[in-house]
Amino acid sequence: MKTLKVDVAVIGAGTAGLVAYRAAKAAGASAAIIEGGDYGTTCARVGCMPSKLLIAAADAAHAVGKAPDFGIHVDGGIRIDGRAVMDRVRRERDRFVGFVLREVQDIPGAERIRGHARFVDDHTLAVADHTWVESKSIVIATGSRADFPDSFKDLGERLIISDDVFDWTDLPKAVAVIGPGIIGLELGQALHRLGVRVAVLGQGGRVGAISDPQIRAYALATFGEEFALEPDAQIAYMRRHGERVAIGRTGPNGRSEIEYFDYALAATGRAPNIKGIGLENTTLKLDAKGVPSFDPRTARTTSAEGASPIFIAGDAGNFIPLLHEAVDEGRIAGGNAARFALGEQVTPGLRRAPIAIVFTDPQIGIVGSGFHSMKPGTFATGQVSFEEQSRARMMLKNKGLLNVYGDFATGRFLGAEMLAPAAEHLAHLLSWSLQNEMTPAQMLDMPLYHPVVEEGMRAALRELDLKLRAAQIDVSKAT
User: What is the pTM of this model?
Assistant: First the structure.
């Protein structure tokens, strides 16, 4: 085996890994990046980009179906060409992957190592059977993989994960989506709108990332009007039936029923890719799931021997598995790994206000840590419905509910949960306000055009501001 000595070794050439490598180099360290699989990020290959391509096709089909409500009629009805839909998804997906591949090719060949990396100790990696990498610090950026119960494996090739969808050459007739989380809702609704018979089934009542009971109930009712959604399905069994999947469950009517699907799509979450990389050979402290403990501010892991030379970024850390977070974490991890290697002080990086968006229709938006993180009695809520909001009604997008939260003690805006038209834009405005520690009164001073969907946000903020002011008056009277 040949030996390579560098300041920083990065395991994984996904989004976080590539950013970490560039950050280490920018900080003046020598670096190498190791990849055991195909180049091309999860986002570009099987994540955010191809899923949004499928959703865009579904939205186009849905818009044609809604045209008669505007007085516009398309003779002959809608014909969805599944092969053409998936051909465009794959072509555009490959184009996005091509951008990433070109970025990888710009890395000097001597600093790109192919093969599975495994820890020998805190400073040494064995890559396949050909390279020994010795480094002063290491960044783990191995990403994540789809995770599902072992019992699902009995379905054989009738079981698929979201990654598999984007390699289809045609659309199937029927798909059971197991898991009404972000991936399950996005793909389930998109496939339904493209003419696939869909049932989205879950356990525990979860709907996307929503934790506010009012928003969850509204989302369940709204999506349930369009496609079969049972977030707490009573599934008795799920088994292979020839070239189909048979699912037996107790239906909403209380009767036992069996339904057949071409595939079962497991959308039951993702797990960090940390197995098989030799973490047991390090001094790292691992949590109950085997993930290294780390400080999100510095991306530095916790070692049983004190200052750790190992950093972690992206989905491997299982902290906030979103692309923009992976970019930030890669930058923090790579920069701090370089500083450690060069004998400099490790420093906290910028962690932005939490924001999450689900590209359903209506969209789901979560700003801040979520309703579930707030202590009852410490916050007020302002609410608006989009059913009568002028711009939303003009576009026939008048479905939605927005709750905004404010802290009684400080008067500051705390976050929001919503099912709303254009939630991707509303959530950004609200997240910027949260990061700037604004009060609802200060947010109301910001400009809004007319007529826009964002005016609905103003109505919710007005209600929130009134409640916070009233609480302050009550406290003043009491004292």
Answer: 0.94
